Write a sequence for this structure.
Protein backbone atom coordinates (compact mmCIF):
# COMPACT_ATOMS: atom_id res chain seq x y z
CA UNK A 1 0.00 0.00 0.00
CA UNK A 2 2.80 2.41 0.89
CA UNK A 3 4.54 1.67 -2.39
CA UNK A 4 1.32 2.27 -4.34
CA UNK A 5 0.71 5.57 -2.51
CA UNK A 6 4.24 6.72 -3.27
CA UNK A 7 3.91 5.79 -6.94
CA UNK A 8 0.65 7.77 -7.06
CA UNK A 9 2.43 10.71 -5.43
CA UNK A 10 4.82 10.78 -8.37
CA UNK A 11 1.86 11.23 -10.71
CA UNK A 12 0.41 14.02 -8.50
CA UNK A 13 3.53 16.15 -8.98
CA UNK A 14 4.98 15.84 -5.49
CA UNK A 15 8.74 16.36 -5.34
CA UNK A 16 9.77 13.41 -7.52
CA UNK A 17 13.26 13.10 -6.04
CA UNK A 18 11.91 12.91 -2.51
CA UNK A 19 9.25 10.40 -3.54
CA UNK A 20 11.84 8.25 -5.35
CA UNK A 21 14.09 8.36 -2.28
CA UNK A 22 11.27 7.28 0.02
CA UNK A 23 10.31 4.58 -2.46
CA UNK A 24 13.93 3.38 -2.41
CA UNK A 25 13.74 3.04 1.36
CA UNK A 26 10.43 1.17 1.07
CA UNK A 27 12.01 -1.27 -1.41
CA UNK A 28 14.94 -1.71 0.98
CA UNK A 29 12.61 -2.55 3.85
CA UNK A 30 10.71 -5.01 1.64
CA UNK A 31 13.97 -6.68 0.64
CA UNK A 32 13.67 -5.57 -2.99
CA UNK A 33 17.30 -4.55 -3.01
CA UNK A 34 17.85 -4.33 -6.77
CA UNK A 35 14.88 -1.97 -7.12
CA UNK A 36 16.08 0.12 -4.17
CA UNK A 37 19.60 0.27 -5.55
CA UNK A 38 18.32 1.35 -8.97
CA UNK A 39 16.24 4.15 -7.42
CA UNK A 40 19.13 5.46 -5.32
CA UNK A 41 21.58 5.20 -8.22
CA UNK A 42 19.08 7.02 -10.44
CA UNK A 43 18.86 9.86 -7.94
CA UNK A 44 22.64 10.17 -7.97
CA UNK A 45 22.71 10.17 -11.77
CA UNK A 46 20.10 12.94 -11.72
CA UNK A 47 22.54 15.00 -9.70
CA UNK A 48 20.65 15.14 -6.41
CA UNK A 49 22.68 17.21 -3.96
CA UNK A 50 21.71 15.26 -0.85
CA UNK A 51 23.41 12.52 1.15
CA UNK A 52 20.15 10.56 1.25
CA UNK A 53 20.78 8.34 -1.81
CA UNK A 54 24.21 7.44 -0.42
CA UNK A 55 22.66 6.68 2.98
CA UNK A 56 20.12 4.45 1.28
CA UNK A 57 22.85 2.69 -0.66
CA UNK A 58 24.75 1.98 2.57
CA UNK A 59 21.79 -0.02 3.84
CA UNK A 60 21.32 -1.77 0.50
CA UNK A 61 25.01 -2.70 0.28
CA UNK A 62 25.08 -4.03 3.85
CA UNK A 63 22.00 -6.16 3.17
CA UNK A 64 23.72 -7.44 0.03
CA UNK A 65 26.77 -8.26 2.19
CA UNK A 66 28.85 -5.86 0.10
CA UNK A 67 30.93 -4.29 2.87
CA UNK A 68 33.26 -2.47 0.48
CA UNK A 69 30.32 -0.94 -1.37
CA UNK A 70 28.73 0.09 1.92
CA UNK A 71 31.99 1.66 3.05
CA UNK A 72 32.34 3.62 -0.20
CA UNK A 73 28.81 4.97 0.20
CA UNK A 74 29.33 5.79 3.90
CA UNK A 75 32.48 7.71 3.01
CA UNK A 76 30.44 9.58 0.37
CA UNK A 77 27.97 10.52 3.11
CA UNK A 78 30.83 11.83 5.27
CA UNK A 79 32.26 13.77 2.30
CA UNK A 80 28.85 15.34 1.60
CA UNK A 81 28.05 16.12 5.25
CA UNK A 82 31.32 16.29 7.22
CA UNK A 83 29.82 18.39 10.03
CA UNK A 84 26.83 16.09 10.56
CA UNK A 85 27.39 13.68 13.47
CA UNK A 86 24.94 11.26 11.86
CA UNK A 87 27.40 10.82 8.98
CA UNK A 88 29.96 9.43 11.40
CA UNK A 89 27.40 7.29 13.20
CA UNK A 90 26.62 5.69 9.85
CA UNK A 91 30.31 5.19 9.09
CA UNK A 92 30.84 3.56 12.51
CA UNK A 93 27.87 1.28 11.85
CA UNK A 94 29.47 0.10 8.61
CA UNK A 95 32.78 -0.55 10.36
CA UNK A 96 30.92 -2.68 12.91
CA UNK A 97 30.19 -5.19 10.15
CA UNK A 98 32.54 -7.83 8.79
CA UNK A 99 32.91 -9.02 5.20
CA UNK A 100 30.05 -11.47 5.70
CA UNK A 101 27.68 -8.67 6.62
CA UNK A 102 27.55 -9.69 10.30
CA UNK A 103 27.51 -6.91 12.85
CA UNK A 104 30.36 -7.50 15.30
CA UNK A 105 31.29 -10.65 13.38
CA UNK A 106 34.85 -11.90 13.26
CA UNK A 107 37.05 -9.36 11.52
CA UNK A 108 34.88 -6.28 12.00
CA UNK A 109 36.84 -3.02 12.16
CA UNK A 110 36.33 -2.01 15.78
CA UNK A 111 39.17 0.50 15.92
CA UNK A 112 37.79 2.35 12.89
CA UNK A 113 34.29 2.32 14.39
CA UNK A 114 35.68 3.81 17.62
CA UNK A 115 37.31 6.64 15.65
CA UNK A 116 34.05 7.37 13.84
CA UNK A 117 32.05 7.41 17.10
CA UNK A 118 34.60 9.73 18.69
CA UNK A 119 34.30 12.08 15.70
CA UNK A 120 30.50 12.10 16.10
CA UNK A 121 30.97 12.94 19.78
CA UNK A 122 33.33 15.81 18.93
CA UNK A 123 30.68 17.21 16.60
CA UNK A 124 27.90 16.93 19.21
CA UNK A 125 29.00 15.92 22.71
CA UNK A 126 25.42 16.20 24.00
CA UNK A 127 24.01 13.43 21.78
CA UNK A 128 23.51 10.25 23.80
CA UNK A 129 23.62 7.92 20.78
CA UNK A 130 27.35 7.93 19.99
CA UNK A 131 28.23 7.62 23.69
CA UNK A 132 25.88 4.66 24.10
CA UNK A 133 27.02 2.98 20.88
CA UNK A 134 30.67 3.52 21.80
CA UNK A 135 30.05 1.95 25.20
CA UNK A 136 28.40 -1.06 23.60
CA UNK A 137 31.23 -1.40 21.10
CA UNK A 138 33.88 -1.28 23.81
CA UNK A 139 31.93 -3.99 25.63
CA UNK A 140 31.85 -6.15 22.50
CA UNK A 141 35.60 -5.75 22.33
CA UNK A 142 36.06 -6.69 26.01
CA UNK A 143 37.28 -3.25 27.11
CA UNK A 144 35.06 -3.04 30.18
CA UNK A 145 36.68 0.07 31.65
CA UNK A 146 36.11 2.11 28.48
CA UNK A 147 32.64 0.62 28.12
CA UNK A 148 31.66 1.71 31.63
CA UNK A 149 33.08 5.19 31.05
CA UNK A 150 31.18 5.70 27.79
CA UNK A 151 27.93 4.30 29.19
CA UNK A 152 28.19 6.50 32.28
CA UNK A 153 28.64 9.52 30.02
CA UNK A 154 25.54 8.41 28.09
CA UNK A 155 23.68 8.10 31.41
CA UNK A 156 24.80 11.60 32.39
CA UNK A 157 23.38 12.96 29.13
CA UNK A 158 20.12 10.99 29.30
CA UNK A 159 19.42 9.25 32.63
CA UNK A 160 16.26 7.64 31.21
CA UNK A 161 17.94 6.08 28.15
CA UNK A 162 16.52 2.55 27.96
CA UNK A 163 19.69 0.96 26.58
CA UNK A 164 21.88 2.51 29.24
CA UNK A 165 19.51 1.38 31.99
CA UNK A 166 19.56 -2.13 30.56
CA UNK A 167 23.30 -2.53 29.87
CA UNK A 168 25.23 -0.36 32.32
CA UNK A 169 24.64 -2.63 35.35
CA UNK A 170 25.82 -5.69 33.38
CA UNK A 171 28.87 -3.91 31.98
CA UNK A 172 29.70 -2.50 35.42
CA UNK A 173 29.50 -6.01 36.90
CA UNK A 174 31.81 -7.37 34.22
CA UNK A 175 34.24 -4.53 34.87
CA UNK A 176 34.14 -5.13 38.63
CA UNK A 177 34.66 -8.87 38.11
CA UNK A 178 37.71 -8.22 35.92
CA UNK A 179 39.33 -6.08 38.65
Amino acid sequence: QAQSALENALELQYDPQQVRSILGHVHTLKGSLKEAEALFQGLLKDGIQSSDPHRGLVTVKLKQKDLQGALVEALNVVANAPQDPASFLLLAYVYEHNGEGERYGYGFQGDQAIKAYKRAIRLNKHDVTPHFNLGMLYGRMGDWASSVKALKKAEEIDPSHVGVKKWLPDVQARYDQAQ
The longest helix spans residues 162-178.
